[in-house]
C-alpha cells in the first residue's frame, strides 16, 4: 500500500458550478427575509444559471465530447497489393435485413417499460391522492350552541366545555373561556359583547388552564345543558390569568402572552347571537389585545397553528395555510 | 502404493446416514442455491481484531425483529378507534394470556431499539467506519434512524390515553412549526384539521405498515452494502495499519480494500 495514494482525492476538485449554485441558494434564502420580490428573484436566477453550468460540467464526460482522431495512413510499400477501390470489396458490415431497422427486442423493451410506467402512474395517482387529499378537502365548519346568553352573568368568566362535532363525540371535546362583557355601543348600535378565548396554547397546542378558583369554591352554580352540540358545561371561574401545564406559557385575562414560550396571544372564537343563544363560530388568531372587555382592540389574524408567528419577521415562514373551516 | 482396505460396515452405515441427513439440504441447494447464499451471508471473513462494539448493529436488527414480531401479535387484539383503543389495550394487558408480556416487550423494546440505533451510530462514527467507500451505508443508516424515530412517534399515540393524546398534539404541532410546509405536514398527520378518529387510524397505518415496510427495505440495503464492503477494523488495529502481516502477506504486498490491484474490488472480508 503506497501511503501517497491515499492523499489523492477520489473526485475531481470542485469547480465554479456547485459553488455558484450554493451562493444562489443562499442569496435566494436571504432574499426571502429581506426582499422576496427582488433579491430572491436574483438568487433564483443565479441558482438556475449555475445549476445549468454544474449539470454541463457533470455530464461533460457522459455526453462524450467529440475527439478528432486522424485516420492512420500508410505508404503503399513494395510488394503490397495495390489498394482496392472502396467500392470494389465486400461491405464491412452487411446491409440490415429489411424490416430489422428497429429490432423487435428493442420494441418489446420500450413497450414493457412504457406500459409499466403507465400502470404505475394509473395506480399511484389515485392512491396518493386518497392518502393525502382527504386531510385537506371538505373540512367542515362547526358552530357550537352554548345556550341562552341570559344564563351568563355579566362580568363573570366561565370555562365552557363542549363538543365541536357531535359525530366525533368525546374526541372533539374542546374548552373555551367565555366572559359576558354586557352591552356595548362601540360600533354605533347596542349589541352584546363577549370575550371568547380558546384554551389551545399558542406554543404547541396544550390545554391552557384558568389560574384561579372554579365552581363550588365560589359558591356559584355550574350550568349544564344539552344543546344541538350535545352536553355543554359552563363552570364559573375567577382567573388571574391563563397558564399552560406543558411548558409554562402564561397569559393575562385577555389572552396576551405574559411569560413563557408562546409566540403570540391565545386564539379567539367568532360568535353570533342566534335567537338569544350564544353560538361559537370559526376561530381566529390574535397577536395581542389592547384594552380589555368590550373596549378591547384585538389585533386579529387568520387562524394559524400553534407556534406559528402571525407578526414580525418570522411570519414570512408561514405564507400559506392549509384549507380549513 | 497404498492398499485400500474395504470399508467397514460401520463406515458404510455412517456414510449412508450422512447422505440421508444432507439430502434435504442438497435438494434445496441444487434447485435454489439458497444454502450457499446463506453460507455466504453468515460465514463471512472479518478482520481478526474486530471488537464487541461491532455487534451493536446486529443487536439493533434483533431489537427490530422483536418489535416486528410482538407488533404483529399486538395487532391481533388492538382496535384503532377512539372508543375502543384504550379498552383494547387494557384487555391486552389484563386479560389476554401473556398479553402483558408481549405488550411490555413491545413497549420497552421500542426504547431498546432507539437506544441501540444511537449506540450503533456512535460506534460507526468513532471507529470512522463511515469513511470511503462506506458513505452510502451511513446515509442509509441515517434514513433508518429517522424511520425508527417516526415509529416511536406514531406508536406513542396508539394507547389513546391522556399522555398519548397530548404528546401527539405537541408532536404534531411541533411539526407544524416547520417553515412553509409545516402547517400542511401537521394537517396531513392529523388527517384533517382536528385530532380525531382519522388521526388514530393514520398513525396506526403508518406505524404498522408504511414505516416498517420502509425500514425492511432500508435494512436489506444496509446489509447488502455491509456484505459487499466488509467490516472495518477498529481504529487502533495494528493489522489494518499494516504492522502485522495478515496470512503471512507483508503490508507492502497488500492493496487497499477496493482500490486498484485488489482483484475484483469487492473486498468481502478484506482488511481495511
Quick rundown:
With 325 residues, chain A is of the alpha+beta class.
Can you walk me through this structure?
The complex is a heterodimer of chains A (325) and B (272). Among the domains of chain A are: 12-60; 144-317, 3-layer Sandwich (Rieske Iron-sulfur Protein). The relative contact order of chain A is 0.09. In chain A, helix 2 packs antiparallel against helix 3 (39-58). Chain A has helices spanning 3-6, 16-34, 39-58, 60-63, 104-132, and strands spanning 144-148, 157-163, 173-184, 191-198, 209-210, 223-227, 230-237, 242-243, 250-251, 257-259, 268-274, 277-290, 297-301. Chain A has five helices and 13 strands. By secondary structure, chain B is mostly helical. Chain B has a domain at 51-234: Cytochrome Bc1 Complex, Chain C, CATH 1.20.810.10. Helices cover 63% and strands 0% of the residues of chain B. Chain B has nine helices and no strands. The longest helix of chain B has 33 residues, at 197-229. At the A-B interface, loops of A face helix 7 and helix 8 of B.
List its traits.
heterodimer, A: 325 residues, alpha+beta, Rieske Iron-sulfur Protein, five-stranded antiparallel sheet, four-stranded antiparallel sheet, B: 272 residues, mainly alpha, Cytochrome Bc1 Complex, Chain C, disordered C terminus
